User: Fold these one by one.
Assistant:
Number 1:
Amino acid sequence: MTTRVPTRPPRVLMFSHRNIYEIEVWRSSLREFEDIVCDIDAVDLVAPPPGRWYRQRRRIALRVGRDSDIILNPGLPRIALQRDYDLFFAICEKTSELLHLAAVEGWRDRCRTSICLVSELWAKEMPYFTSCLKMLGKFDHVFSYLSQSVEAIDAAIPGHCSYLAPGVDAALFRPHPRADRSIDVFSLGRRDEQVHQALLRVARNNGMFYVYDSIDGLRAHDLEQHRLLIANMAKRSRYFVAYPAKWDSPHERGNQSEMGARYFEGAAAGTIMIGEPPTTEQFAKTFFWPDAVVRLPRDPRGIEEVMTEMDQQPDRQEKVRKTNVAQALRRHDWVHRWQTVLDRAGLAPLPALVQRRERLADLAAAFEG
């Protein structure tokens, strides 16, 4: 257990998966959230490593928990708490990760309020995780990144769930006002293969600098360095490809169309986002300004024309870039998400949070000016 803000007694006990998933790139955004929370609040961070028989015990725990509400520790060392806290906060990406929380003994008794953020609990998958949902029901409140999962979660654990949008380290991704955008198009992670092939043709024929994943690898040497690299490339990109979360995996998401982290990263970096927005009410409320995402045509042959048209309108581009950056700084930094968590827990923000929020507002005003 480590305390990240030693100047005052810790009031938050935060469970982290960083020692179970140490270098998986898809964890970098959630790790970023945890790190910022540790910087702006008084936190005891617990991050147990997997035990010797973790994989085998995890399979058994999931098999037993699929058809019953029996909660088994999937092979993590037990953590005995030595003091009381105002808030127990846990971030779980996959539904199965909820079983990891069984390793923390007595958190309901020693924490006045408990809140869990689940980033990928798809409604379609819920029937397969009986024991995990029982663990989720132990929390006073649950936040879901997936707006269309809220109703299903709330039906399983009534009155507990609400929506929380993803976020971004807006200060890290913020571009210099006169940044040299030397990358023409940046595509990160999942992609539409037809769009990708169309962009490759433009890159071959016209010399466009197109940056994309060229290897099928999901592990980084270091997650913090990986995140810095992504931010530096994004804020030097003119266009940024963004599609709904898991859009190419209907076997996981079912009929849901959800807002993933890419939209927040692309906006914070001041790119022109191209692709497709999710068909959700929450997206329209969050990215409410014109051209937040420029739709690409279904026919890949028209993609180059869309970018060419945008390139011929520098004033339109400048307005989109400034709006994207300013909105990210004012609304979508992790500090704003943590403020929502604190509001739900009935806790006042600490001075470090207020200072970060004010600094971001100043950066937004300076960027607009």
Number 2:
Amino acid sequence: MFNEDLLTQFRKLYFKGQHVDPAPPLYIISKEEEYEVEKVRNHRKQGCGIQLLVHWKRYGNEHDQWISETELPHAKKAIGNYWSRISSQNL
């Protein structure tokens, strides 16, 4: 049993940031669904490895994720571009 008085009516979303568009379709690579990395935005040390802040192609910033570098075998170009950009900033 549940008390109906505790329920609240659904309210429409009023602000642009409250609405999240549905995810675009995934790419199929080697019969597996895979997201495409647009660029790497940052990095951090996590345990014994490095995690990269990944921005996914065709997704908004709210979908960025910290992913272990070893879990991104198909993103070598984006990872290489990030490390090149970081090393040129440190010069």
